[in-house]
Amino acid sequence: MFHQSAKALRRQFGLTGTEAKGIVRACSQGSQHGSSLGLGVNPKGLQACEIWQMDVTHVPEFGRLKYVHVSIDTFSRMLWATAQAGEKAAHVVRHLTACFAVMGVPQEIKTDNGPVYTGGWVHRFLQMWGVKHVTGIPHGSSNDRKSS
C-alpha cells in the first residue's frame, strides 16, 4: 500500500499544512493506528477488492477540479482519489473507471445515499461490472465514513 506524507501532498498539490494533514488523517482513519470505529459500525472486507467505501470531498484550492472523489478498500486500506470538475454521475463513473484500472474491481461499494450514487447511470455502471452497491451511509453524514 502506498501513502504520501503530508509534506509530499503539500508540495505536489500546493495545500496548506492543515489540509494535507487532514487528508493523511482521513486515510489513516481505517488503519490500525487511528481507528475509533468498531467493525459493527462499518464492516471491513476480509480480502482486497471485497468492500470499498466511496465519497467526495471538496478542496477549493484545486479550483475547477475541487471535487475530489475518493475510494478506499476497507481491507487493504488502499485509497485512490481523483480530482473532478463536479459531483455528477459522469464524474463518479470517470472516477470508478480509474479506480478499477488501478485497484481492481470490488465485489461491493458502500456510499452515502446521495442522489448521484442512487441514480440510474451509476447503478447501471456498477451492475455492468458486477459490483453490489450498498447505500448504508446517510447522505451528508461524516460519522461513519472511511473515505471522507
TrEMBL record:
Coiled coil: none
Positions of the Integrase-type domain: 1-31
A Pfam family reported for this protein in Swiss-Prot or TrEMBL: rve
InterPro entries per UniProt: Integrase-like_N, Integrase_cat-core, Integrase_Zn-bd_dom_N, RNaseH-like_sf, RNaseH_sf
A GO biological process held by the record: DNA integration
Gene3D superfamilies the UniProt entry points to: 1.10.10.200, Ribonuclease H-like superfamily/Ribonuclease H
Domain Integrase catalytic: 39-148
SUPFAM superfamilies: N-terminal Zn binding domain of HIV integrase, Ribonuclease H-like
Broad class of enzyme this protein falls into: transferase
Keywords tagged on the record: Endonuclease, Hydrolase, Metal-binding, Nuclease, Nucleotidyltransferase, RNA-directed DNA polymerase, Transferase, Zinc, Zinc-finger
A molecular-function term among this protein's GO annotations: endonuclease activity
EC number: 2.7.7.49
Origin: domain of life: Eukaryota
Protein name stated in the entry: RNA-directed DNA polymerase
Organism of this sequence: Gallus gallus
